[in-house]
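Design request, tokens follow.
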């Protein structure tokens, strides 16, 4: 049904929370047997009308992720209203701010939808009946009889402030400042789910600072509430009194699923680790003094652990189960979601039959962890998911039982999950099948089904490999290696680095054969400090390339229909958004061969370095239901290459030129090239003489008023070593098959000049 709820929550400490929820049914499904009340459909127009209202500034609706049959808008007014009088005044203000807009949307939708029977107000009789039922339920509260608020138990939080175990830079900074700043600026902007957790943190809560999967850097007590500092790249902060500042390591990998800020279920292990350090016991006792349930003997490590259970989170002793979920990307493309965003999953298929191994759906519990694997055509591990609700009947579907009452349709049973974190390496099916730890893994052997159980060892093996905790070390790439690979000077390489970092968008331009694409990839490696090609995407523009290929568009399917599919750029940007601790590089070869305004569309503005944040997010031309606006993250770099010799190419328009910095590459026909040729078994005489003759040819081209610097012969023509033909045959093949056709094209109106230039490149090789 279409519902409007003003929900009051009484907190354990006697304060109040208030939120407004709007639930709107989607269009009637194709199944004619589906049971819907006549007032519920059609309502998509109402949803659009609600979103179109110009709401007061204080009204901030949050759009829920797309679910099976309902659309939802939520406005959280406050979670911490101190008194009943304040609550009543807040409700009055909220009604004044929301009801006119809701009336406006209902009237607009009703005018466009003659047969719609929704949007009616309660009659006085209906309202009186509801009031009587509410008065019976809340008699004590209305009489002023409030139970004594239960003391809020101390909550234990974990904060990820370092990305790799052993790194201590950020921790040292904030330890000295007596503050905690979770890594939202570097990992990802916080979702609504994480924001709620920040709001739940209170003074006297304990925060455990973690690095990597097992290292604890320190422990402190919150002395305030979280605030926001827009001037810092880690904007969310809270004051802390640091109590334990000596790093310790726990056994195993207790912090496998890392989050910038979350409740921790590992406080017992953390406390036990510090209790074993004699130097830390006095400080540790300060944490025990404030715990609900009393303190422990400083000299009794076991007693300290047992006493702390009283103050520990109620789910702390529950070990999560581990699962694998096969996700059909036609119904849920995980990359389009954000960390913390929820999705529902039905326990019955489209035909109403129970899914394979239905018992697994009954066993999942909140807090269980799930490997999210996208099936054909993706066939990759995409994310770590977390169960937030066990199997339950969807509130969206009810059926009449013939007695005038409604009950939940048993076939509408669902589980709810949220995206816990995205993986760094999207493991393929082939990679998973090659892992010895997964030899008996149930989902890899099964032919049908969606939800499977994993053992702790199997989950750990997949997780540590996908997050590159135990992955093979990638080859390092340093400035010294770049100097060896490229014929550029050290200063030239550093200049390229500075240009890319300054503007985040770089175009490397030059004549044919100067190694533009080769340089672009190695520039990416150099900034990453490793040869990680998963974080480098190469495409080539051409005259037929379009917005639909690059960003998003409608694509034909095997069944003869069409689907809205992401282009290569959007998919790659999603990866960068989900892993903002690492840099990502998008390389566009021959960037000036495409119609750039047509290809980039509305994203042209987002390329600017100072607009790389959600603040400047824009809706895509082809939007998916429930999708948030699109933005480019600060860890994304775009490198283009441009050939300056092709007369058929259009000039880059000024709008794009302003957003890129341009660097020229020139032929490098010096000592480094000669040394390289000698190392490839080219005689020194031939290498030296050949390069000198090419330099002379380039001087002729440079002075030609119809050619110039953009048409010089580049050094990459000569970098391929002989392949059995001998040095003389190698040089003759380069002249006849590579350079001669190019020169004939250059001087197409002067064949004699081209012939002389080709002849001048011939070099006599002694003994051949």
């Amino acid at each position: 049904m279409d519902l409007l709820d003003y929900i009051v929550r009484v907190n354990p400490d006697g304060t109040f929370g208030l939120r407004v929820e709007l639930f709107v049914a989607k269009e009637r499904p194709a199944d004619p047997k589906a049971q819907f009340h006549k007032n519920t459909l059609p309502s998509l127009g109402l949803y659009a009308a609600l979103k179109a209202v110009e709401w007061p500034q204080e009204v901030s609706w949050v759009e829920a992720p797309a679910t099976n049959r309902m659309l939802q808008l939520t406005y959280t007014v406050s979670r911490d209203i101190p008194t009943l009088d304040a609550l009543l005044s807040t409700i009055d203000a909220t009604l004044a701010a929301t009801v006119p807009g809701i009336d406006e949307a209902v009237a607009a939708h009703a005018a466009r939808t003659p047969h719609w029977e929704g949007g009616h107000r309660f009659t006085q009789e209906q309202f009186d009946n509801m009031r009587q039922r509410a008065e019976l339920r809340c008699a004590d509260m209305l009489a002023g009889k409030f139970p004594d608020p239960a003391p809020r138990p101390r909550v234990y939080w974990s904060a990820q402030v370092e990305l790799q175990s052993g790194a201590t830079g950020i921790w040292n900074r904030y330890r000295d400042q007596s503050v905690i700043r979770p890594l939202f600026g570097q990992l990802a902007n916080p979702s609504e789910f994480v924001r709620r957790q920040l709001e739940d943190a209170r003074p006297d809560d304990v925060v455990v600072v973690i690095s990597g999967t097992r290292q604890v850097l320190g422990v402190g007590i919150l002395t305030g509430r979280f605030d926001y500092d827009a001037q810092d790249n880690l904007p969310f902060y809270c004051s802390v009194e640091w109590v334990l500042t000596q790093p310790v390591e726990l056994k195993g990998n207790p912090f496998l699923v890392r989050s910038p800020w979350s409740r921790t279920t590992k406080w017992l292990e953390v406390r036990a680790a510090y209790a074993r350090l004699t130097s830390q016991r006095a400080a540790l006792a300060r944490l025990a003094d404030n715990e609900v349930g009393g303190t422990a003997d400083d000299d009794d490590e076991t007693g300290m652990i047992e006493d702390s259970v009283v103050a520990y989170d109620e789910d702390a002793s529950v070990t999560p189960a581990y699962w694998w979920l096969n996700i059909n990307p036609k119904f849920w493309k995980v990359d389009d979601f954000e960390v913390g965003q929820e999705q529902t999953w039905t326990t019955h298929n489209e035909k109403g039959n129970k899914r394979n191994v239905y018992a697994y759906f009954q066993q999942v519990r909140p807090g269980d962890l799930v490997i999210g694997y996208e099936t054909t055509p993706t066939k990759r591990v995409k994310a770590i998911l977390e169960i937030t609700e066990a199997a339950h009947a969807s509130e969206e579907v009810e059926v009449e039982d013939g007695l005038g009452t409604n009950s939940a349709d048993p076939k509408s049973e669902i589980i709810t999950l949220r995206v816990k974190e995205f993986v760094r390496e999207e493991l393929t099916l082939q990679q998973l099948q090659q892992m010895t730890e997964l030899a008996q893994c149930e989902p890899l052997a099964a032919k049908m089904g969606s939800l499977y159980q994993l053992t702790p060892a199997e989950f750990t093996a997949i997780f540590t490999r996908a997050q590159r905790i135990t992955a093979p070390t990638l080859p390092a790439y340093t400035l010294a290696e770049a100097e060896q690979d490229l014929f550029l000077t050290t200063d030239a390489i550093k200049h390229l680095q500075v240009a890319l970092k300054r503007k985040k968008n770089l175009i490397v331009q030059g004549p044919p054969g100067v190694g533009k694409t080769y340089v672009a990839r190695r520039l990416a490696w150099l900034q990453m400090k490793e040869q990680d090609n998963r974080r480098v995407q190469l495409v080539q523009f051409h005259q037929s390339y379009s917005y639909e290929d690059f960003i998003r568009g409608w694509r034909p399917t095997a069944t003869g229909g069409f689907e809205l599919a992401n282009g290569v750029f959007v998919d790659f940007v999603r990866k960068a958004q989900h892993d903002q601790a690492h840099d990502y590089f998008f390389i566009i070869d021959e960037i000036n061969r495409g119609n750039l305004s047509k290809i980039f569309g509305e994203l042209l503005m987002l390329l600017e370095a100072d607009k790389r944040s959600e603040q400047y997010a824009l809706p895509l031309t082809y939007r998916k239901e429930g999708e948030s606006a699109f933005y480019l993250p600060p860890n994304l770099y775009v490198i283009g290459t441009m050939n300056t010799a092709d007369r058929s190419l259009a000039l880059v328009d000024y709008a794009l030129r302003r957003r890129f910095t341009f660097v020229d590459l020139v032929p490098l026909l010096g000592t480094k090239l000669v040394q390289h040729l000698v190392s490839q078994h080219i005689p020194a005489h031939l290498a030296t003489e050949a390069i000198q003759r090419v330099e002379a040819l380039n001087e002729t081209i440079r002075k030609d008023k119809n050619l110039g610097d953009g048409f010089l012969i580049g050094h990459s023509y000569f970098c391929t070593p002989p392949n059995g033909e001998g040095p003389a045959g190698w040089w003759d093949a380069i002249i006849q098959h590579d350079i001669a056709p190019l020169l004939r094209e250059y001087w197409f109106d002067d064949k004699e000049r081209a012939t002389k230039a080709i002849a001048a490149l011939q070099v006599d090789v002694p003994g051949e």
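Comment from the thread starter after seeing the answer: thanks! Residues 28-41, 291-317, 396-408 have pLDDT under 50 and may be disordered.
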